[in-house]
TrEMBL record, chains A, B:
Keywords: Magnesium, Pyridoxal phosphate. InterPro entries: Ser/Thr_deHydtase_PyrdxlP-BS, TrpB-like_PALP. Residues 19-301 form the Tryptophan synthase beta chain-like PALP domain. This is Threonine/serine dehydratase. Coiled coil: none annotated. It comes from [Mycobacterium] fortunisiensis. Its cofactor is Mg(2+); Mn(2+); Ca(2+); pyridoxal 5'-phosphate. Pfam families: PALP.
Length: 315, 315
């Protein structure tokens, strides 16, 4: 299996430079002084998540005549918005398959980009997307199971390496594994001294179990769906798992209470609105004895319902 | 009266470059397409506000032996934290005078920097600070009435000009006027085509009235204190007013409801936690018919009590 390389990630960075926000590293001065902390605020991207990087890289790599036929994808939310946004920027049609239980805030935000949203039952999204590819002739841009998507997400790691070359630890959420695969690949190549941690909810810790077992372990959708971190309910593909085995040193798992606490900490101390999935890496930093030295936590997304954020802040 | 120049602001930018976050311009794609909007998120600075720029420039300009005697200031909050933070970075003592009615979140955050906080009655803070200067031999770093502070805040405008040279309108909150003076000076010099708007709460619209009258009009503290925007209750000095007369084209005033709505919009759409004072410029953009073309709103601070943010989000 051919894995994504640092050259692929470098090329992605050049390809998407004018389409995404070059997020700064924000010093989190209130954190553990032995593990000085920086936040990589990908919740500040136009669609509120790092997913825009992979989407623009995947669309940008397509030949113009292929891209003109439009794109199709499936996603629980942030990748959907990212593909919708990138398709609009390129002026091509997009069909987005979303599970029926996707938070309304994400369905609305996706539709706002002027794309076709097709809702489907749990576990049906990949097959429905395949049908749409047949019907429309569009190109499938999967949420993580594609080298161009992984390379795009890896630009997060490239920027960390550029801004903090002496980084000792990087913490990144794991779901389907596109972000963790890309960031891990970039950090391995540019900051070989750093330890790369994946972070998962305890209630969706399929990757922790898979990496320990040395092969993909199936957690049924209903089991993964228990976590509040709705962006972390996917499971790696063969492609992302092969990356994760190579580039992730350790997986930290965090409780639902720890995730909520991290959402609150980000709002109160960093002035960032993070969705639960976007806060798990900070929860991992708080929970685990990561190595001393400069540490970066990737705040991967910010699309949280206002009611939930209000509840967490009032709590 | 000698006014701050673009050269002073350029020098400040070099002086503080390693101390502050180089905040990006965040595209706010959901805004009016005829007035494409970017946010300058100064709430992401280490102390949660632009004030760190003026504080580091003022301390950095002092001769080392003068600085060693320590610094004194008075502030309703964000400037206090900024001076405390900068004094700690320079390893010098700081005495901070704060009004008794300052939100607890700001008092605590200031004390956390290991400085001496002296609480005082409304309207007493300047005289108490003067006493502390006498007692300690420290240097007064006022919140806005000083050229080095104005020049430091002006670096916000310099960065806007660097990142979006074709800007058509810049909206910035006005309180004591340090930020507006500095940003206006930088924009006038580097983007002469742009219109510079100050934004004030209707309940603290002393500067709107003063600029219309052509001289400083006194609004009693109790009158200015009615607004929820607790960072905008100060009134310009002769020095900042002279700048504002020269560099502010128009003042927009906004209601308390409009300020709350902007806090909510920033959290929901931009994933930024802004305090009411930090959201007024967006409220001004929503309210007024600013010119067509690229527009920048300065989100000046993020230090809001969680309970208030929860209330606004639940509202």
């Amino acid at each position: 299996m051919k894995l994504v390389t640092i050259d692929d990630i470098d090329a992605a960075a050049r390809r998407i430079a004018t389409d995404v926000v070059r997020t700064p590293l924000l010093p989190a001065r209130w954190a553990d002084p032995h593990r000085p902390l920086w936040l990589k605020p990908e919740n500040l991207q136009p669609v509120g998540a790092f997913k825009i990087r992979g989407a623009f890289n995947a669309l940008g790599t397509l030949a113009a005549d292929v891209r003109a036929a439009g794109v199709v994808t499936y996603s629980s939310g942030n990748h959907a918005q990212a593909v919708a946004y990138a398709a609009a920027a390129y002026g091509v049609a997009a069909h987005i398959v979303m599970p029926e239980d996707t938070p309304a805030v994400k369905v609305q935000a996706t539709r706002a980009h002027g794309v076709h949203v097709v809702l489907c039952g749990a576990g049906q999204r990949e097959s429905v997307a395949a049908e749409l590819v047949q019907q429309t002739g569009g190109v499938l841009v999967p949420p993580f199971d594609h080298p161009d998507v992984i390379a795009g997400q890896g630009t997060v790691g490239l920027e960390i390496a550029q801004d903090l070359a002496e980084v000792a630890a990087v913490l990144v959420p794991i779901s389907g594994g596109g972000l963790a695969s890309g960031v891990g690949t970039a950090i391995r190549a540019r900051c070989p001294q750093a330890t790369v941690f994946g972070v998962e909810p305890e209630l969706a810790a399929d990757t922790a179990e898979s990496l320990a077992a040395g092969h993909l372990v199936d957690w049924p959708v209903a089991r993964r769906n228990r976590t509040i971190a709705d962006g972390l309910r996917a499971t790696p593909s063969e492609l992302t798992f092969a990356h994760l085995q190579r580039v992730i040193d350790e997986v930290i798992t965090v409780s639902e209470v720890e995730i909520r606490s991290a959402v609150r900490e980000l709002a109160e101390r960093a002035h960032l609105v993070a969705e639960p999935s976007g806060a798990v890496a900070l929860a991992g930093y708080r929970k685990a004895a990561t190595p001393p030295g400069p540490t970066v936590v990737v705040v991967s997304g910010g699309n949280i319902a206002s009611g939930l954020l209000a509840e967490i802040l009032a709590g």
